Each structure stands twice: as structure tokens, then as C-alpha cells.
Amino acid sequence: MKNIVFGYARVSSKEQNEGRQVEALKAEGVDERNIYIEKRSGKDFNREQYNNLLGRVREGDIIVVTSIDRMGRNYNDILEQWRYITQTLKANIRVLDMPLLDTSKHPESLDTRFIADLVLQILSYVAEKERRHIKQRQAEGIALAKAEGKITGRPKVQKPERWDEIYTQWVNKEITATAAMKVLGLKTNTFYSFIAQERERV
Fold it and tell me: How big, in percent rounded to 5, are the helix, strand and coil portions of the chain?
């Protein structure tokens, strides 16, 4: 039986457009009938279309995603799913924007799978370390400001957890400002204040 190439596209809400991902998957040779589209947060893998996809995947098949964050946001969970797909299901994964994460090039090669697994391990480590650094810097900054008497009255509004993801989608015109504010639960002035902060950092 011929191996099947599947595609998986994910956006975080119904307001977002998955069209660019779908076109990239089709350009890679994925039949549109084999593309699974999810409109749900990537916080975990309890997703209907993702699980439907895994239910069809057989040994030697390939799952293609445009980028690793389309699989999810938690790299430890991604690593667990990656191992399940490549080791338990014995299928392959291809990440279009990161050629090292492609086990389909040499599916029988232990080196290929080892390198992909190692890259994911590094990504998981860096992501977790950055999360801890951000929390630590925020805590230290707040403590310093309080000690210097700079914080009075209402505390400064913190960016929502999904800010980076939604902001990137807004910059890439994958989501409107109205939809972004709704997803993030932000008022207009707060939303554009955060955007101004991002532009100052560039």
C-alpha cells in the first residue's frame, strides 16, 4: 500500500484564516482531501481534528506542518507527540520551515531521527528556560519598582499569555485587530499600547 502524505493546519480561533498554511501544504504535494484543519488553541493535544488525523496515520505515512508551533505551544508535549508518531506509529513528520525536523528524508536512518529528536529537545529546553527568565525578570522588575516607590495605584496590565502568538498573526495579516482583541480579551487602547511597545523594541 502506498504511503499517504497528510497535512495538518492549525489556527487558534474561528476568526483566524488558515488559508496560507493550506496553500503551503498543497504546494508541498499534500492532497487537499488529506489536510486536517484545526481551529483551536495549541495549549494541549486534546483536539478533534488532530486525533482524527492520528487515527488515519499508518507506518511510513508522512505528516506535514508548516511550522512546529502549528502542532502546539508546549514543546514538552510536542516532544511526546513527536515520539509517539515516529516511534509508536512509525510514521514521519516534516516541518516546512525547519528542514532539520524532517524524518521523511531518510526514514530508516537512526541519525535522521536522532537529529530531529535532539533539535526538539533543544527547542523544549530553550522555550522552558525563556519562560522562567521572563517570569523571573517580571518578578524582579516589580519588586524593584515597588522598592523605589514607582508602583502606586493599579498595577500595570500584563500582556496575555498568548500575546506573542496573536501579535505575530496580526502582523502577518492572518487576523484582524478586532478578532485579536477578542481572542486576547483586551480593550482597544490596551491592545494598541502593547503594539506600540513591540515597535519600540524593534
Answer: 55, 10, 35
pTM of the model: 0.62
Q: Are 18 and 37 in contact (CB under 8 A)?
A: yes
Nearest C-alpha neighbor of 176 from the set 190, 162, 186, 166 = 166
30 within 8 A of 57, measured Cβ to Cβ: no
Instruction: Note down pLDDT in tens along the chain; length 202 residues.
Output: 789 999 999 998 888 899 999 999 999 999 999 999 999 888 889 999 999 999 999 999 999 999 888 998 888 888 889 989 988 999 999 999 888 888 887 666 667 667 777 877 787 776 666 667 777 877 777 777 777 776 555 556 788 888 988 988 988 888 898 898 998 988 888 888 888 887 766 5
Give the list of residues 6+ apart from residue 85 with CB closer than 8 angstroms, or none: 54, 57, 63, 91, 93
Rounded CA-CA distance 113/128 in Å is 22
Whether residue 14 contacts residue 41, with contact meaning beta carbons closer than 8 Å, is answered with no
For residue 177, how far is the Cα from the chain centroid? 20
By annotation, the residues acting in catalysis are 12
User: Which residues are CB-neighbours of 24 under 8 A, at least 6 positions away?
Assistant: 66, 96
Write down the residue that cell numbers 523605589 correspond to: 148
